[in-house]
Design a protein that fits this description.
With 104 residues, the protein is mainly α. The chain is 67% helix and 0% strand.
Length: 104
């Protein structure tokens, strides 16, 4: 199988200029990329901070809802116990005769 060699003179290479009249300067390209890169990194960091804050806020909100539910249940239980004790002591007090007060 014969090998064919490419003639380098016939291959068109892309021009190294960004525009026809502008020279491509590596320093200017670096300066043009750095500012958007820094802004993008700062914006990304801010989004991550706010996302973390929102996740933490939702977690605390869920904990607060659980605490409110437990508090309401415990309050109802305590109220039931107090009512039971009050009813039990009223029943025992009614069976007893009140102490006679001395006449003056």
């Amino acid at each position: 199988m014969p090998r064919t060699l490419l003639n380098n003179k016939n291959i068109k290479r892309p021009s190294t200029k960004a525009f026809a009249g502008d020279d491509l300067n590596n320093n200017s390209m670096k300066k043009e990329i750095v500012f958007p890169l820094i802004v993008g990194i700062i914006f990304g960091a801010m989004v991550m901070v706010f996302w973390q804050f929102t996740a933490s806020l939702r977690n605390q909100s869920a904990r607060l809802a659980q605490l409110e539910t437990a508090t309401n249940q415990n309050t109802q239980t305590v109220n039931d116990i107090v009512t039971f004790i009050n009813n039990a002591t009223k029943g025992a007090g009614a069976a007893e005769t009140p102490a006679a007060t001395p006449a003056e």
